[in-house]
Write a structure and sequence with these properties.
There is one protein chain. By secondary structure, the chain is of the alpha/beta class. Strands 3-2-1-4-5 form a 5-stranded mixed sheet. The longest helix is centred in the middle third of the chain and has 34 residues. It is elongated, with a radius of gyration of 28 Å.
Length: 299
Amino acid sequence: MCDDELAEVTVPQIWAGVDIGKEQHHCVVIDFEGARLLSRRVQNDETALLDLIRDVLDLSQDVLWAVDMNHGGAALLIGLLVSHGQPMAYITGLAVHRASGTYRGEGKTDAKDAFVIADQARMRRDLGLLRPGDEIAVDLRTLTTRRTDLVCDRTRQINRLRSQLLEIFPALERVLDLTNKGPVLLLTGYQTPAAIRRSGARRIETWLKNRKAHGAAALAKAAVDAAESQHTALPGEKLAATMLVRLAKGVKALDEEIAELDALIEARFREHPHAEVIRSLPGMGARLGAEFIAATGGD
C-alpha cells in the first residue's frame, strides 16, 4: 500500500486489535495513550461479531481495526467490517510475535496479542490498509489451496506405491522414477517380474505408446531388464500386485485433477486486471502469479 493511500485516512481516536482464532477471537480496544477501553473474547459468529462492532463504535466512530490474519478464520469479521465501512490494518503473525517480546506482562495470551496488535497499529505508520480480496483473488486462493492439498496427497500416494513395489519387486522400484507419469502408467498394467517377462519389451512398448507414455521404448526396456534380474516370486505377490494397480490408478487420478486445476487456475488468473503486469515479472508464471494474487488479495 502506498503512502498516499495511507495519508487519505485521518488519524483514528481508538484502535481495535483482534487476535484471530478459529472459533473465537479476542479484541482489545485502546485510546490515543494506549489505555485499554475494552477487552473481550468473542465467538467467530455473525451475531457476536456484530455486537462487538456496535460496542466498539459506541466508544468512537473514528476507529482503526487491526487483525493478524487476512483470510481463514478472519474472513467473517473482515466481511462484516467491510460492510460497515470500517478501515482495517493487517499485521502479520510474525510481526506480532516479534513485537510481543518488547511488552511487559504475562506470556503469550490472546488478550496480550490483541493488545500488541492494537498498539502496533496505533504507533506504526507503515502498515497497509487491508482490503477484502476481490472475487478472482478469493477464487484463486480456493483453487491454489486445493492444488497444494492434491500435490501433498500425490506425494503420499507415490511413497505408498514405492513401498509396496519394494516388497515384491525391488529391482523395478530402483529403475522407476514414480514422480513421472510413464512409470506410474506402467504399474497399472504390469507389476510382477513374471508378467513383464511374458510380455516382453516390444509388447510393453506398444502398450505404453497406445496410452501416450513418453519414452515408451526406454521404459519398456528398463522394466524387462529389471524382470530378468529377479526370477523369484515373493510371498504375497498376487495381492500386492492388485494393490499396486489401485495405488497407481490413484496417482493417475490425482495427476488428472491437478492438471484440471492448473487449467482453471491459469484461466482465472488471466481474468485478473493485474495478470499481465504480474506475468511480466521475472520468473512469474500463471501458477505463481495466481498464488501471489491469492496471498495479497488482488491488491
